[in-house]
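User: Show me a protein chain along with its predicted structure.
Assistant: Here is one chain, sequence first, then structure tokens.
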Amino acid sequence: MTESVAAVRLLVITGLSGAGRRTAGHTLEDLGWFVVDNLPPSLLPKLIGVCRERGFGRVAVVLDVRSRAEFDQLPGAYAALDEQQVVREVLYLEASDEVIVRRQESVRRPLPLQGSGRLLDGVNRERKMLAELRADADLVIDTTSINIHQLSARVAKAFAADQVGGLRFTLMSFGFKHGIPIDADLVLDVRFLPNPHWVPALRAQTGLSKPVSGYVLGQPGAEEFVTKVTELIELIAPGYLREGKRHATVAIGCTGGKHRSTAIAEELGRRLSANGQVVGVIHRDLGLE
């Protein structure tokens, strides 16, 4: 007989159609989560009861809000989950209009809210209906410029740990010339540091190499910056938890995302991990230069 569990970690996967919800669900399934696809929101509390009885400690639900009636069920379902003391997290996936339309056209499927209009009409309706969910999401992932393998890697990095409660940080290096990440909670700019690109011996290397990392961290202001940002992140972490947020993304940017931001993100990750924070480091634009 399966032993029941008191604590259930629930992850709601939602977002725009065509943004990668099912890819995220398959990734979590591979990580040992119990995944349910396209469950009506009103059944969430009942599902948690069944999962407790069967000993499923990590449950992910791919939520596809196809109508206003289904969307209106969410507040009641969430209230019931709060009464059951369920640790609830929301992963929201999105992409640009152009990419969503291209993906849907390639599979020749209409969007759930498209009706008799254009694909873009359906995208706009989904964005408006899901705006509140996006605002309350613990983690937002923009899949505009990443493939399914990169999405799987990001989901795995964020949710592989079997951790109920607590806050998890993702540190993301990026290049401003490739655009500011729209899925970041906090954006930091390290372009005030000298660029290793202009040092011939370092140009071909990345911030993951010791010579580049040593060069970046040895510049005036670098040590103070890393120390202050570490203190800032540890200051805001309890506040995020008080507000019910379980995941935060901190983006660190330089010009191309190859040298300075990569080195600083790695060092921040090392220090925060040493201080007991749960941290994952990703480099969005490494290899694009």
